[in-house]
Amino acid sequence: MSLAANWIALDWGTTHVRAWAMSASATVLDQRSSDKGMGRLDPSQFEAALQDLITGWTNGPVTAIACGMVGARQGWAEAAYSAVPCAPLPDGLTRAPTHDPNLTVLIIPGLSQDNPADVMRGEETQIAGFLALNPGWDGVLCLPGTHTKWVEVSAGEVVSFQTCMTGDLFAAITGHTVLRHSTGGTDWEEAAFDSALADTLSRPEKLAARLFSLRAEGLLHGLSAGAARARLSGLLIGAELAATRPYWLGQQIGVIGAGAVAGLYVRALAAQGAPATQADAARVTLAGLTAAWRRWKDPK
Fold this sequence. Notes:
This protein is of the alpha/beta class.
């Protein structure tokens, strides 16, 4: 396939990269993905990986706008963090080194918070995209994932944020502890999730004790893997909601993400009388990259 992209949008994470060939009016001409994420590359390999991914998209000079771990210290080029409070797309993009004179790659910086110490990369672009699609929106955004972000947004700025390693904990517990014997497979029981969520929300201090009971109930009472897996998720998300209550209680809430995990957060919040609007992650990411491109192209 041969086309002439006006510019290229890149979401380059640790495990994968997604690319969109874009027209001058920000219409998607084509899209591709690869498993050549930041974690598989050293800085000298990024340009070749990108050239392979966008073969046939260009016939002259082109600029790529990138977000995510491509801008980490171990990435293509480190894009320094911008400290909050600030707009999700602060001034300044970092130019990555390239050998091809026709290729310009500009990386969006992440955001940092001094106290309590916290950082994000990639989520700032999703926040910018959400705000571009919802002008004037104020409230709290939840971005579920390996490291879930809770972000306070007001007057177009990120005021503060908090990261919870809930996804990482779920993966570690189901893959590297005794509970791996109890939580295998993909079965799921919603009632088990709901009861565990309520339990740990009301008594988060009992989380560590509740975890081992999943193993014991499987041995003594035949607790199914689907129920154990759902209960583990409920326990961890309940503890997270208990810790982040000052963020979401009484606020307008948006959850950015597609699929089952984001749906669990919407379900969990609704159970606490905190309805949330769910937004597709890919859509808001592309909207954020487009906002960054337009700002770079016309910086006034």
